[in-house]
Amino acid sequence: MRVRIAAVTAVTALGLAGAAMASTNGSAAQPKLIGKVGINDAYKISLKLPNGKTVKTLKSGFYKLTVTDGSNIHNFQIEGPGLDKRVTTVNYKGTKTVTVHLRKGKYKFYCMPHESQMFGFFKVT
């Protein structure tokens, strides 16, 4: 009986230690962002929160960004302090998920071939 209790305690302690390590190395659950570009070949691009609200201001940190690219004539790129990430490319159509580190400053997301009309900005504090 004592050996079994000790084994359960050791397993529990290892599990808690693993959870603590996960939260310090950035692999804990990350806030989500949802990007969309060119759905049905439309000249539209967006970046929203899971609740559907347009992103205007975010806190600095790591985010899981899922982009749905609905056209092979558009792409989704995001730029800001320390970040220049092409999430999807022209000729790609589908969904991709990446982790981005957003630092304090101003960010722009856009479609590279149509940047003059397909873009948006947000701020990180």
What labels describe this entry?
2 domains, Immunoglobulin-like, 125 residues, 5-stranded mixed beta sheet, single chain, alpha+beta
What does this protein look like?
- There is one protein chain.
- By secondary structure, this protein is α+β, with helices and mostly antiparallel strands.
- The protein folds into two domains: 1-28; 31-124, Immunoglobulin-like (Sandwich).
- It has one helix and nine strands.
- A hairpin with a 2-residue loop joins strand 5 (76-80) and strand 6.
- The longest helix has 23 residues, at 2-24.
- The chain starts with a helix and ends with a strand.
- Mean pLDDT is 86; it is low at 5-25.
Strands, count: 9
Beginning-to-end CA distance, first to last residue: 54 Å
Q: What sequence of helices (H) and strands (E) makes up the elements?
A: HEEEEEEEEE
Give the name of the CATH superfamily of the largest domain. Answer: Cupredoxins -  blue copper proteins
Uncertain runs are 5-25
CATH topology-level fold name of the largest domain: Immunoglobulin-like
Radius of gyration: 20 Å
- Average pLDDT, all residues: 86
Protein structure class? alpha+beta
Helix content, binned percent: 10-25%
Binned strand content? 35-45%
The CATH class of the largest domain: Mainly Beta
